[in-house]
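Notebook entry, structure prediction.
Reason for the run: the old model in the group folder had no record of what sequence produced it. Starting over properly, with the input documented here first.
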Amino acid sequence: MPKGQSHLYTEEQKCFLQANCSLPRKELTRTFNEMFTLSLTEKAISSYCKRHGWLTGRNGQYVKGSQPWNTGTKGVCKPNKTSFKPGQTPSNSKPLGHERICPKDGHILIKVDEPNPYTDADTRYRPKHHVVWEKHHGSIPDGHVVRFKDGNNINCDIDNLECVSKSVNLRMNRNNVNSLPSELKEIGATLAKLEVATFEAMKK
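New structure, fully documented this time:
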């Protein structure tokens, strides 16, 4: 985006910010940019939320006189009969295939039999639409994202998914393709792809 030019937020982006405004601004900015393939600054996101009254509800300060939860516990947190033992499975552990909604972006997450690179666990949760797409078409190419054709990010039917470049995804978002009537969504998507193809051809 050219310096000094303000970003024009789509209705989808406004709803996302309002729904997730309680997140720390750094995390909200990262999630927003990943969701819409943008590169807005934390300051820009914070200012926009502040102008609309979408506050976190936190001020980051301790109440005077409060103490950390672990005050005075140094050396006393030792294993006991209720402690987990090596190889023990927590009673609330979820089976493979368990699904839940991601609080950050509203996507469905599904538990899969893959090592978690962050916790070293044997399983992890992944976006369901990624898992479904890869099951039918293989790995998602670098520089590409999987979109929901009907704009419903919990409809993970393979017929509702498409893999597009980040450039096409950005153009679709800017053209508000997901906000179009259902009978026009496919036309809007096709036009976005043509615009990107034309622009890339002109650069060569």
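Summary: The longest helix spans residues 182-203.
The old model has been moved to the deprecated folder.
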